[in-house]
């Protein structure tokens, strides 16, 4: 299992609620969290996905992500 970090535009509880189905629905993700207090809104994911797969999931949910 690896831990990946991404800068995002997920910046509030409503945004987290919107992205939750996409991230919780991916079986290769063991856990995730977004630090909305951070200026870069860091998304931390533990799982078996590649960086590109995580970026695609976040973008499908309507948000942006780039490797931190």
Describe this structure in words.
It is a single chain. The chain has 2 helices and 4 strands; from the N terminus they run βαββαβ. The mean pLDDT is 96. The chain starts with a strand and ends with a strand. By secondary structure, it is of the alpha+beta class. A hairpin with a 6-residue loop joins β2 (29-35) and β3. It is 32% helix and 34% strand. The protein has one domain: Alpha-Beta Plaits (2-Layer Sandwich), CATH 3.30.70.
Provide a concise account of the structure shown.
The protein has two helices and four strands.
Describe this protein with a few key phrases.
68 residues; 4-stranded antiparallel sheet; globular
Based on Cα principal axes, name the global outline. globular
Low-confidence stretches: none
Spatial separation of the terminal alpha carbons: 18 Å
Radius of gyration equals: 10 Å
What is the chain-wise order of helices and strands? EHEEHE
SSE class: alpha+beta
Largest sheet: 4 strands, antiparallel
How large is the count of helical segments? 2
Mean pLDDT: 96
Count of individual domains: 1
The helix fraction, in percent, is: 25-40%
The third-level CATH topology is Alpha-Beta Plaits
Which CATH first-tier class would you pick?
Alpha Beta
Q: Care to count the β-strands?
A: 4
Strand order of the largest sheet: 2-3-1-4
Strand content: 25-35%
Name of the CATH architecture: 2-Layer Sandwich
Please describe the topology of this protein.
Layout (H helix, E strand, L loop, with lengths): L1 E7 L4 H12 L4 E7 L6 E6 L3 H10 L4 E3 L1
Antiparallel strand pairs: 1-3, 1-4, 2-3
